């Protein structure tokens, strides 16, 4: 056969290319896709970290469905560029930018006060922003930067906006977590800000994502009967900037060998979009999703006592005030 007449190296290249193609077709075929055509006219959606990656694709979809979309971002230049791109490609103009740096509790409070003053409803809050950094680093609030950007900031933001979200019921809160929530073997409340260690490459990131899942569980339980439902999700392995702080050696391994199999940002946004628009999900509030289906979270993430304790410790660490609580 002609194939066997080719040189060994050509045969190897053809074999590898075919293998990649078959895996890509399989991954594309099994990747969850949101098929709902639900419109969101008259609804308001806030998406944190919406200037790039999964957040930007989610914002694009929400705008296309007719929602008023608020891009909550820390870099206004990048956020304005994303807004212009979304408006140009969707031809929907109800897309606005507001400054939010989750690594500053002052910024979270200022953003929330602004929303409470200027918006009369909030139907969907998507806590999407996330950061994977190399090691511990303290913010101006004395909290670990990754913990604050990925968990504490969203914890405070959600609590401050809850009154408006509940008033807009039926409403939803969606927390973008990760399969990395499985990495931690325990949640060490005495060292939640990694003051004594935290050097493992994805150690802190894994803890922050476990916090996202535990926060979802506790929030869903506190919101039972209010008409506001809460979900968390793993978007898949997605080609975005999330690994921008990874060491060069890791990038050298992942780029050629892994990224060909990663989802595009649009594919990575599907589960978030599914949770924002799919009807009849009320009975599943508190669940963890992946590829637009309920998925199993880690054993630690199901621990109700841990979720309650995390809530109490988070309240203390963000110094939540009585008038910021709406539960
Ligand atoms: N990509 C994946 O494979 C993957 C897998 C599992 C989970 N996730 C999760 O998916 C979510 C979206 O990530 P992505 O993949 O789309 O990554 P990305 O392209 O890096 O986007 C992350 C977004 O979060 C923003 N952000 C980070 N820290 C912030 C802070 N302190 N305040 C406000 N915004 C902040 C970033 O803003 P700047 O542009 O200004 O930095 C950016 O807009 C994250 O929660 C991530 O953990 C991603």
Automatic annotation (TrEMBL):
The keyword Transcription regulation does not apply. The chain crosses the membrane at residues 12-29. Gene3D superfamilies: NAD(P)-binding Rossmann-like Domain. Pfam families: adh_short. SUPFAM superfamilies: NAD(P)-binding Rossmann-fold domains. Keywords: Membrane, Oxidoreductase, Transmembrane, Transmembrane helix. One of its GO terms (molecular function) is oxidoreductase activity. Belongs to the short-chain dehydrogenases/reductases (SDR) family. PANTHER family: PHOSPHATIDYLINOSITOL-GLYCAN BIOSYNTHESIS CLASS F PROTEIN-RELATED, WW DOMAIN-CONTAINING OXIDOREDUCTASE-LIKE PROTEIN. This is Uncharacterized protein. It comes from Artemia franciscana (Brine shrimp).
């Amino acid at each position: 056969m002609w194939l066997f007449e080719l040189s060994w190296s050509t045969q190897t290249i053809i074999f590898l290319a075919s293998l990649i193609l078959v895996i890509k077709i399989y991954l594309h075929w099994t990747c969850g896709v949101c098929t709902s055509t639900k419109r969101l006219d008259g609804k308001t959606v806030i998406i944190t970290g919406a200037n790039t990656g999964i957040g930007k694709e989610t914002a694009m979809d929400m705008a296309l469905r007719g929602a008023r979309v608020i891009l909550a971002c820390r870099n206004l230049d990048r956020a304005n560029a994303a807004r212009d791109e979304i408006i140009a490609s969707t031809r929907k103009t109800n897309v606005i930018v507001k400054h939010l740096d989750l690594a500053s509790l002052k910024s979270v409070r200022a953003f929330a006060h602004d929303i409470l003053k200027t918006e009369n409803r909030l139907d969907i809050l998507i806590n999407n922003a996330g950061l994977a950094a190399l090691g511990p680093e303290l913010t101006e609030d004395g909290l670990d930067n990754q913990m604050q950007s990925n968990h504490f900031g969203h914890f405070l933001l959600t609590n401050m906006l809850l009154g408006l979200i509940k008033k807009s019921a039926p409403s939803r809160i969606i927390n973008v977590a990760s399969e990395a929530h499985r990495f931690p073997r325990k949640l060490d409340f005495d060292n939640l800000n990694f003051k004594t260690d935290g050097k493992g490459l994805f150690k802190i990131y894994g803890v922050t994502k476990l916090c996202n899942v535990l926060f979802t569980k506790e929030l869903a339980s506190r919101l039972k009967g209010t008409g506001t439902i809460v979900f968390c999700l793993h978007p898949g392995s997605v080609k975005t900037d999330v690994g921008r702080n990874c060491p060069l050696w890791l990038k050298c391994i992942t780029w050629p060998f892994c990224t060909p199999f990663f989802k595009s940002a649009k594919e990575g946004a599907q589960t978030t979009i599914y949770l924002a628009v799919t009807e009849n999900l009320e009975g599943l509030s508190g669940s963890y999703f992946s590829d637009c289906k309920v998925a199993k979270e880690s054993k630690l993430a199901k621990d109700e006592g841990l979720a309650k304790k995390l809530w109490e410790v988070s309240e203390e660490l963000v110094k939540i005030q009585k008038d910021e609580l709406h539960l």
